[in-house]
Every structure is written in structure tokens, then in C-alpha cells.
């Protein structure tokens, strides 16, 4: 439970810290591309290594793998806390993602081995609760730390919690291991990591140079797509692949996963915008911004059990299609937010968004897994988790790139007559523009940066909403109108909570 709480705390604190990291004085002066990598590197490592980590637990014992993941998570958190530049922070975040990938499958496997019957259901409930506490408490805790200490304190907090969890793990938890060993699939791991890194690099690079025709933009994207195609072909030839693409050929399973990937894409992108809107454009303190995002987590936690009860009376499609449509509309609602929008309207929007997203992820994930034969449940879970995390990391890349390109075009007319260095810094991001405007005493430049950011957020939110509506259409087409089996949908586990972060 400590490890579950730890992972969710860490994921939610980062979004509150982004604005501080962009500040050249209080943070690292990171540009939007570097912040996209700091956010996405963690998810990228998690998405591509989790199915391999599960096989390692079967082979060497889940407690052994769990312990190694905790040590790596704590060590890389210490590294992140004292990173001297954005490059070090990105590397540390990737290492933290590796640690989480080792922790997560072992965590759930140990829970399943330890408890049976009604006790298992109760344990999963406690597990989900710990994830929810982390999601809700993370932004507030990060805001408190950023208001009173330096930005690295949000990562340093992980170290004592991880140390306590490690002691409990060694003393209390047996070293469970599966009697059936799964292959490690090194070829699939290398191809998936290389392909996603190349694809994400090209997408983020497009936002930095604002020209898709450049070789350093289209070449990595094309190379990444080739590697990911090779990954799928390799997995099709493996008898027991860690990621089984054959499952995606099934209409319900493939369509449901496509919709979840699209939803997580949209959530990751809109969350990236929220961090800069609250602290940058509106000038909220980290504490106030963290508290302002709590309704999203609370809404998500309320949405999952609400949807579970509704599905007992209706079908999964009847519940999730309207919910995803509402989620898309709330993301499009960011196009109505401005510098003078009352906080109460922002809170209402975030609450409805969290509620709608929570009503989609839990029922769809449970329906997809329950739709598979029991012997394919493990493989199906690996596919679903990988697709969701991949959607998140690409959402961060694309959403941030749209914001950078539109912002740069919007700020350009306001830079006429400004010195060259001022123009160069102001083009990087609204945060950099505000900082240089203060330094050279040009308040009109700061106002222009705010206006350019709001315009960029409006444009990005429109595209994100359209994509989320496409996800709702996919659910409408691929999910059955009437469920074959009526019954309670299992409560979401900690992995579903991660999707909302």
C-alpha cells in the first residue's frame, strides 16, 4: 500500500511542479520540449518495460523484482531532486519509470498470491483507495513543498517512504514466483523502446522548430513508425509474446483499447495545459494550483464506482459512450477559459471532467479483460496497460507541440522592435517571455505572452476535444449494445488510477 501511495503521489506532484521547473530563477529554466520529456520519459519507460518486468517476477521472484524496483525508484528520485539541468532531470525521470515498471506488476501479483476469496476483493479495494489518496493528496503536498522549499523537495519526499516500504517488504512479504515462466522477449522490448523514443522525439522536435519538413522532424517519426511496425511483426512470430497484437484484431478488445488510448492521449495533453494555465497565466501559487486540481482526482474516484453500479442496469456502451462524450466536451470547454474566468467555473469543469473520465476507464478496462478467455487475461492486461501508457506519452508530445507552435505564431507580432535576445527568449515559451519582460521592464510583453498562451491553449483544446469525440465514436461502434453477461464490473485497480494522472 505504501508503494501504491508513493507512485501516485509522484505522478501527481510533477504536474504541479512543471511551472516551477520552467522558471529560470526558481527552477531549471526548462523549455516546453524539455518539460514534455520530463513528463513523458517516465511514462515511456513504464509503458515499454512493464510486460518484461512481469516476466522477471515470474522468473526471479516478485519480491526480488519489487525490491529492485524500489531501490531504483528511490535512487532516481534522489537524482531528480538534485538534478542540475533539465537533461539530468529527464534521465532521472526515465530511471524512475523503470523502477515503477518493476514495482507495479510485482505489487499486484503479490496481492493476488497473498489473498483469496472475499479477502482478495477487500485487498483490491484498499489498494485502489491508497491510489486515490495519492492522486488527491499529491497536488496539495507538492504545492506546500514548492511554497516552502526548493523544487527538488517534491522528489526527495520519495526516498524515506521507499526506504520504509523496502524494510516492510523484506520483513513481511514472501518471495512469490510463478510455476510457469514467461519469456523475457528482449527483441520486443528493444524495438518498442526504440520505436517510441524515436516517434516521441520527432513529435516534440516539431514543436521546437515549427517546421515539419525538416529532416530532424520527419525522419525520427518515420523511423519510429518503422520500428514499431517491426515490433508488431516480431511479436506476431513469438509463441508467447509479452505484448500480443493478435488480441487487438478482436473487434471489442481492439476497439476498446483504441478508445482508451485516445482518452489517455487527451487526458495527458489537457493536464499538461492545466499546469501552465493555473500557475503561469493565472498566477496561482503552487499550493493554490495544486488544490485547484483536487476536484479532478475526486471526480475520477467517484466516477469509477458510479459507472460500476450503472453498468449493472445498463450496458457498458450505454454508460461509457455518453461519459466519454462529456469528457470530450469538458476538454473543449478549455476554449472558453480565459485570464478572468472565475475559479468556481474552473473547478466545476475539472470536477465534471474527472467524473466523466473515471466513468470510462474502469468499466471499459474491466469489460475488455472479462471478454477474454481466462488463459488470455494476463496477455490482455499487458496489452491494455501498454496501449494506455503509450497514449499518455504521445498525448504529452503532441499536445505540447501544438501549444508551442501556436504560441510562437501568436507572440511573433508583439516582438517587433524588441532586442534580438529578448525575442529569442520570448519565443521559447510564455514562462520565458514573462521572465524576460520583467527583466527588461516591458509589461506589455508579459501581457502579450499571456494572450498568446491562452490562444494556444484554446486551439490545442479544440483538437483534443475532437480526438476524444472520435474515441467516443469508436466505443459506440465496437462495444456491443447489450452485454453478454450482466454482473458487477470489478472495481478499478491501481493501474486505472495511473491513467488519470
UniProtKB/TrEMBL annotation:
InterPro entries: MFS (IPR011701), MFS_dom (IPR020846), MFS_trans_sf (IPR036259). Its main location: membrane. One of its GO terms (biological process) is response to antibiotic. Residues 1-483 form the Major facilitator superfamily (MFS) profile domain. Pfam families: MFS_1. It comes from the Bacteria. The keyword Cytoplasm does not apply. PROSITE patterns: MFS. It is a multi-pass membrane protein. SUPFAM superfamilies: MFS general substrate transporter (SSF103473). It is found in: Cell membrane. The chain crosses the membrane at residues 39-57, 64-82, 94-115, 122-144, 150-176, 188-211, 217-236, 257-277, 289-307, 319-337, 343-369, 390-407, 461-482. This is MFS transporter.
Amino acid at each position: 500500500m505504501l508503494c501504491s501511495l508513493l507512485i501516485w503521489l509522484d505522478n501527481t506532484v510533477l504536474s504541479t511542479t512543471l511551472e516551477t521547473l520552467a522558471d529560470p530563477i526558481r527552477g531549471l529554466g526548462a523549455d516546453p520540449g524539455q518539460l514534455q520529456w520530463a513528463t513523458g520519459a517516465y511514462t515511456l519507460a513504464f509503458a515499454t518495460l512493464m510486460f518484461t518486468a512481469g516476466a522477471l517476477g515470474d522468473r526471479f521472484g516478485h519480491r526480488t523484482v519489487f525490491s529492485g524496483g524500489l531501490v531504483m525508484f528511490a535512487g532516481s528520485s534522489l537524482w531528480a531532486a538534485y538534478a542540475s539541468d533539465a537533461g539530468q532531470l529527464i534521465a532521472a525521470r526515465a530511471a524512475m519509470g523503470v523502477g515503477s515498471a518493476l514495482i507495479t506488476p510485482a505489487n499486484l501479483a503479490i496481492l493476488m498470491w497473498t489473498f483469496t476469496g472475499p479477502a482478495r476483493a477487500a485487498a483490491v479495494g484498499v489498494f485502489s483507495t491508497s491510489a486515490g489518496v495519492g492522486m488527491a493528496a499529491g497536488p496539495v503536498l507538492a504545492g506546500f513543498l514548492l511554497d516552502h522549499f526548493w523544487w527538488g523537495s517534491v522528489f526527495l519526499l520519495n526516498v524515506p517512504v521507499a526506504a520504509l516500504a523496502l524494510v516492510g517488504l523484506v520483513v513481511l512479504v514472501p518471495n512469490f514466483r510463478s510455476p510457469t515462466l514467461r519469456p523475457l522477449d528482449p527483441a520486443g522490448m528493444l524495438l518498442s523502446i526504440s520505436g517510441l523514443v524515436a516517434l516521441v522525439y520527432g513529435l516534440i522536435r516539431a514543436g521546437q522548430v515549427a517546421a515539419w519538413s525538416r529532416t530532424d522532424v520527419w525522419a525520427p517519426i518515420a523511423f519510429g513508425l518503422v520500428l514499431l511496425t517491426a515490433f508488431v511483426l516480431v511479436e506476431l512470430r513469438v509463441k508467447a509474446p509479452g505484448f500480443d497484437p493478435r488480441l487487438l484484431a478482436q473487434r471489442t478488445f481492439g476497439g476498446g483499447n483504441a478508445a482508451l488510448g485516445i482518452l489517455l492521449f487527451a487526458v495527458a495533453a489537457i493536464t499538461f495545459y492545466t499546469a501552465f494555465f493555473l500557475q503561469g497565466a493565472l498566477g496561482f501559487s503552487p499550493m493554490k494550483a495544486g488544490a485547484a486540481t483536487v476536484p479532478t482526482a475526486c471526480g475520477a474516484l467517484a466516477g469509477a464506482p458510479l459507472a460500476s453500479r450503472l453498468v449493472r442496469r445498463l450496458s457498458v456502451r450505454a454508460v461509457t459512450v455518453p461519459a466519454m462524450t462529456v469528457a470530450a466536451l469538458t476538454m473543449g470547454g478549455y476554449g472558453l477559459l480565459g485570464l478572468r474566468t472565475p475559479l468556481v467555473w474552473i473547478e466545476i469543469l475539472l470536477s465534471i471532467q474527472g467524473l466523466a473520465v473515471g466513468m470510462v476507464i474502469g468499466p471499459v478496462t474491466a469489460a475488455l479483460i472479462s471478454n477474454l478467455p481466462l488463459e488470455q487475461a494476463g496477455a490482455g492486461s499487458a496489452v491494455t496497460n501498454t496501449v494506455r501508457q503509450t497514449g499518455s506519452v504521445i498525448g504529452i508530445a503532441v499536445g505540447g507541440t501544438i501549444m508551442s507552435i501556436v504560441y510562437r505564431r501568436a507572440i511573433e507580432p508583439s516582438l517587433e522592435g524588441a532586442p534580438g535576445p529578448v525575442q529569442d527568449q520570448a519565443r521559447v515559451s510564455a514562462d520565458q517571455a514573462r521572465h524576460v519582460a520583467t527583466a527588461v521592464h516591458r509589461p506589455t510583453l508579459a501581457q502579450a505572452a499571456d494572450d498568446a498562451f491562452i490562444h494556444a491553449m484554446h486551439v490545442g483544446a479544440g483538437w483534443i476535444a475532437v480526438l476524444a469525440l472520435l474515441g467516443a465514436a469508436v466505443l459506440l461502434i465496437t462495444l456491443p449494445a447489450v452485454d453478454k453477461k450482466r454482473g458487477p464490473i470489478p472495481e478499478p485497480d491501481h493501474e486505472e488510477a495511473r491513467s488519470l494522472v
